[in-house]
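Reply to thread "Modeling small-molecule complexes from scratch"

Following up on the discussion above, here's a worked example others can learn from. I took a protein sequence and the SMILES for adenosine-5'-diphosphate and predicted the complex. Inputs first:
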Amino acid sequence: MLKKKKNSGTAASRNMVVAEKPHATASEQFRTIRTNIMYAGVDDPIRSVLFTSATPGAGKSTVAANMAIAYAQAGIKTLLLDGDLRRPTTHYTFEVPNRKGLSAALIKDVPVEDEVMHTAFEGLDLITSGPIPPNPAELLASRSMERFMQSVIIQYEMVLIDSPPILSVTDAQLLCRHADGVILVTDVENNNRDELIEAKTLLDKSGANIIGVVLNNREVRPSGAEGYYYPEAVTDS
Ligand SMILES: Nc1ncnc2c1ncn2[C@@H]1O[C@H](COP(=O)(O)OP(=O)(O)O)[C@@H](O)[C@H]1O
Ligand SMILES: [Mg+2]
């Protein structure tokens, strides 16, 4: 069971259903996605996953944060990295300051440990976006980013990376180089087949290993229980 520490974010404010309602259908779905990711990496274990979407508002950040908590709940040492240097939200979700973080680390080239924040959840660390820089793509494409990710990956068992939408800016294409697997999140209410195909094409061009699609925002109507909107895992992209 998840243990909370004192004096840090509770992740209660932004649909952190995995933390708030571990028995809800949605929470079960996040655990299923966790299992599916494990099976997606039978020969080469997947230790870093990028969450992206075609367009904004699909639920990337919500899914990434819930997945991060789901990993920590399984006793896996996890880092949630906010790679959205344009519209970051992780610091809001976990109610922490955003003075330090990825952008600060890349500009100053400081050790990863200087930028890490511990969350309320045992086994879950956070690196927020840091102050929004004028040149996000340049930072993400830098050698400093390479060094940063090399250092991160040896310190955690699982690194989950949040990112901007892939059809809007190039950032997610740059970030997917650093991820063993990519998950495309889509809001079923606003699904656009052509946009999804375009997103997949861009990811393929970047050499991304797309391991699945999360259909977010599907209404649950089983036994009338919760009326919660949940993400559904689709294993084969
Ligand atoms: N499955 C869900 N159920 C309820 N609200 C959701 C769900 N997924 C996302 N949201 C809400 O929708 C908004 C956009 O989600 P967010 O994760 O910030 O999208 P993105 O990071 O893709 O832009 C947020 O206010 C979030 O709390
Ligand atoms: Mg987001």
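What I'd highlight from this example: The pocket of adenosine-5'-diphosphate (ligand 1) is lined by residues 14-15, 53, 56-62, 89, 216-217, 229, 231 (CB under 6 Å). Residues 1-10, 223-228 have pLDDT under 50 and may be disordered. Questions welcome below.
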